[in-house]
Amino acid sequence: MNFGFSEEQELLRKTARDFLAKHAPMTRVREVMAGPDAHAPEIWRQLADLGFTGLAFDESVGGAGLGMVELCAVAEELGRALTPVPFLPTVIAGIAVAELGDAAQCARWLAPICTGDAMATLAITEDRGSEDPADIALRATTDGDGFRLDGRKRFVPDAAVADFFVVVARTGTGDSADVGLFAVPRASAGVSVDPMASMDLLRPLAEVTFDGVAVPADALLGGDRHAGPRLARVLDRARVLIAAEGVGGAEVCLEASVAYAKERVQFGKPIGVNQAIKHKCADMLFAVESARSITYYAAWAAAEANDEAPLTAAMAKAFVSDAYRDVSAANIQIHGGVGFTWEYDCHLYFKRAKSDEAWLGSAPQHRERVARMLDL
Q1: How many CB atoms lie within 10 A of CB 124?
Q2: End of a domain among 196, 226, 256?
Q3: What residues of the chain score a pLDDT lower than 50?
Q4: What's residue 133's pLDDT?
Q5: pLDDT for the residue 1
Q6: Whole-structure pTM value
Q7: Nearest to 356 by CA among 228, 240, 254, 252
Q8: Burial (CB count within 10 angstroms: exposed 0-12, middle 13-18, buried 19+), residue 246
């Protein structure tokens, strides 16, 4: 296996970085953040025109047919820019459709994502704050030829702008495998979306209630009422993408710290000459490069669908959660007093780090998963 990017992958990453530098500068990000839904529709449309929204989906639905490594390269660049679009929630929901859906369902739900005409999000977490299928309480009961959904999902990212939800629901009374994934239009009768307070203003969360929502039989992706194992594969790929976003954000924090340490003069010398600052920056560099290594190894394992994929996904999510949080906090410390002010961007990355840390399992939860998988 080649640990370096191919020429095509490097071009993809450069294209994303150049586009975001031009169309999603921090001035635009802050403008969008001040708006009602933290979404820049013109950036989303341009990303779709570049083919990024359909990057990893099959060509039969209008996608590019690429893999996890390429998708992570784009996610990393979006994380660097804190791009105010629901890219990750939409792609994660799309991955769920691609994993479980039949040909007709993929055509219906993925084609609009590829063209930029639809946004989506995965609704899984409930009151217990867990993504474990065993903790799913929202029920899907048979209702004539279709289903009726009753329950509540919490902490759903970018729900306010989603055109449809991929909803994880309990389909039986058995073990954690007895869940199904349902594609539910946001406009369905009985669906309500209520904003929740969130630290990261660029990724708003919402509580989504399903009150007797009637859906047809073909809303159940793949007709699979026992989708627990397949859902696990979707969640592991989602965690790798979250880690890739974190790598990009952490790298920006490192770059900002080094730049500030060179330009901030104290007692007639740049603060970067101080050993404490040098050591902190060196630790940040180690964390960023280590995070990148484990993330892209996990992306490769997911793309190959090999036996290491669950283990490496858990390792990447655990390591990058800690690394991004620590690097973004160190960035604030190196900036000193101004690092806490609204005018500097340090706090935006720290808030995204905390948001990503909690999304689909914290670092301690995934270290526990790693320990179980290694029989430690």
Answers
A1: 30
A2: 226
A3: none
A4: 87
A5: 53
A6: 0.96
A7: 240
A8: buried
Full domain range(s) for residue 65? 7-118
Cα 6 to Cα 197: distance, rounded to the nearest angstrom: 42
Residue 155 belongs to some domain of the structure: yes
Are 355 and 316 in contact, with CB atoms under 8 Å apart?
no
Kindly list the distances between the CA atom of residue 347 and the CA atoms of 82, 201, 284, 339, in Å, as whole numbers in the listed order. Answer: 12, 11, 17, 7
| 178 lies in some domain | yes
Distance of alpha carbon 70 from the chain centroid: 15
Q: Distance between CA 160 and CA 286 in Å, rounded?
A: 38
DSSP conformation letters of 158-171 = TGGG-SEEEEEEE-
Residues with Cβ within 8 Å of 270's Cβ and at least 6 positions away in sequence, in order, are 261, 262, 263, 264
User: pLDDT digit string (tens) for 157-186?
Assistant: 999 999 999 999 999 876 668 999 999 999
Which distant-in-sequence residues (6+ apart) come within 8 Å of 190 by Cβ?
149, 210, 211, 212, 213, 214
* Contact predicate 324/246, CB 8 Å: yes
**Helix, strand, or coil here: 151?**
strand
| Residue 107 shares a structural domain with residue 239 | no
- Please state, in angstroms and rounded to a whole number, the distance separating the CA atoms of residues 61 and 348: 35
Strand partners, 196: 205
Do 123 and 166 meet the contact criterion of CB atoms below 8 Å apart? yes
47 & 150 share domain: no
Q: How many domains does the chain have?
A: 3
Question: Which amino acid does the sequence have at 256?
Answer: A
* CB contact at 8 A, 48 and 116: yes
Does one domain contain both 138 and 219?
yes
- Go through the chain and tell me how many residues it has: 376
Q: Is residue 360 part of a domain?
A: yes
Q: Give the β-pairing of 120-123 and 164-170.
A: parallel
